[in-house]
Amino acid sequence: MTNLILIKYGEISLKKGNRKYFEKKLVSNIKLKFSAIKINIIRHQGRFYIEYPSGQHDRIISGLKEIFGIIGFAPALKVHKEMEEIKKAAGLLAAPSVSKDLLRFKIEARRTDKSFPFNSYKIACELGDFLLSKYKELTVDVHKPDWTVNVEIREYAYLYAGQIKGPGGLPVGVSGRGILLLSGGIDSPVAGYYMAKRGLTQEAIYFDSPPYTSVKALDKVVKLSRLLSGYIPKFVLNILPFTAIQERIKEHSQSRAVTLMMRAAMVAIACKLAKQKYALCLVTGESLGQVASQTPESIRFSGSKSDLPVFRPLIGMDKEEIINIARNIGTFRTSILPYEDCCTLFAPVHPIVKPVFKDMEAIYKSLNLDDLIEEAIDKIKIVTF
Ligand code: ATP
Ligand code: MG
């Protein structure tokens, strides 16, 4: 008897032409995730089975919850095609549900190997009777079962029960690469998560402003990156020294425009970096109307500094909704650590809410940031995960 995990992948099976490519990406993401564990992945009829060494069960289960493209998975057993062995496996799979007092069950059997002497109906009857005699408190309920034991007879007999929900989405990487503008706040890690869910692999850029921001603020971004690296294989954080640019903006812009100029410079820099990294788009945590730099007029101006598309997956979400997701994906507690943000330190009390595009353009031009930007990009420090 071998312990396995059955993996069901969703949307990717719909993409007929690209199916092979998507499956390959999913397999390679699973391998990267568990590179420290010796696993074996078997593909069969639109599903994967993972064989893993005993003792690694919990690690595999928690890891699979972070791999996009997986809609569900279930602990499974592989046994020889003999009824006694199949019954024994069904008994083992039923035990956790019985101990939780989940007492209504159903058997679903499928026989791909027609040489097996029992047909699907007969297999279900045999196993049902066996479980009823083994656990007297059980009843069969084919309409509203608390749990189902699935049996598939192929080259071996495969049994699984107790499906666990996966994160869904598309395998990270199938939609290409983007640059995530990652601050230490609540929003941008959630934005990165959502784009990863649509198959976008990402590198992050953090605009670091020592001494206005502390090493602890940077540590926080490193921690958030580590959390994101659970969802995004081979995640990279680019730390860009932003102080000189920020000081130039502070000295030469009217104070009400400072935040917007900083946003525009960030977008311009991220776009340059994207091109160096063969990335196709930028990602930010902006949400409409959340702050003055996130009105349609402000977003139009800052966004104009990139000729690559800027994806803003949180644009229509309330802060409450974003916070709930941040809690679910595990970034919230790190995001609320109380270290200063470069932009709040420089933020004017009354920022412009409805900037006039050509006025902003004139200010931005007068800043002459090009050389400073080139220098800063040359000084990027990289952290890999
Ligand atoms: P967050 O919670 O992501 O910090 P926020 O509500 O604080 O978002 P802003 O500070 O206005 O929003 O920033 C808008 C977006 O600009 C962020 O979501 C992020 O994508 C980007 N950004 C802001 N500051 C930085 C920074 N220091 N480094 C990298 N990106 C940044
Ligand atoms: Mg912020």
Task: Note the total helix count.
Answer: 14
Net shape: elongated
H-E order: EHEEHEHEHEEEEEHEHEHHEHEHHHHHE
Please mark out the parts with pLDDT under 50 across 5 or more consecutive residues, or reply none.
none
Round the mean pLDDT to the nearest integer and report it: 94
Report, as a whole number of angstroms, the end-to-end distance.
Answer: 36 Å
| Helical residue percent band | 40-55%
> Would you tell me the structural class of the helices and strands?
alpha/beta
What is the level-2 CATH architecture name of the largest domain?
3-Layer(aba) Sandwich
Bound ligand species: adenosine-5'-triphosphate, magnesium ion
**Going by CATH, what is the homologous superfamily of the largest domain?**
HUPs
What is the CATH class of the largest domain? Alpha Beta
Count of spatially separate domains: 2
How does the major sheet shape up? 9 strands, mixed
